[in-house]
Write the structure tokens for this entry.
Amino acid sequence: MSPDNALTAEQILSATEDVLRRFGPAKATVVDVARTLGVSHGSVYRFFPSKAALREAVTKRWLDQAHDELRLITDETGPAAERLHRWLATLFAAKRRKALDDPQLFATYMTLVGENSHTVETHIGTLIAQIADIVRDGVESREFQPASTDPTTDVDPTTRIDSTAHIGSTARAVFEATAHFHNPAHAASWSDPAADERFEALWRLILGGLATRV
């Protein structure tokens, strides 16, 4: 029970997740959330002006839960290859944990994700930006080759280190190449005992493409 004057947005979002787990997205209502908290539904609306806004907020929180750990890896110093590998592995582990530990809630959120394409696009943009930060570090330390618009042309890497467009396209390519290990469409295969081995094989291929030629 939460008195109205002590209610917080985080409490509402946690209660919403509990209601979604119990009733599913089709039947869950703001009234159910308010009843769970022991407050009036008007109290919930003071934080979230509509059911759609509440569903969007809880979806964003669910998507963003891995961001803090990933951002810590992004902000570290040290070899870019090791950080990028750990970043991708951490993302895969987080997504797999969500899918396998609570499959009913995972399925519920997949419905909500379909309703909130802008929230998903923002989430993906954040992830790609983090990959880009690591790739940029690798280019500047000469661990990685900067991306080229023309792979048949040899250009002095120092002329392209500051190319945001090239680094951004490389980051997006890495994200899309690893989609099998973070896109929920592939969640059914994440419990396969060989999933980690396949992830490592893909990582070696990606690293081979990024690594500076000597």
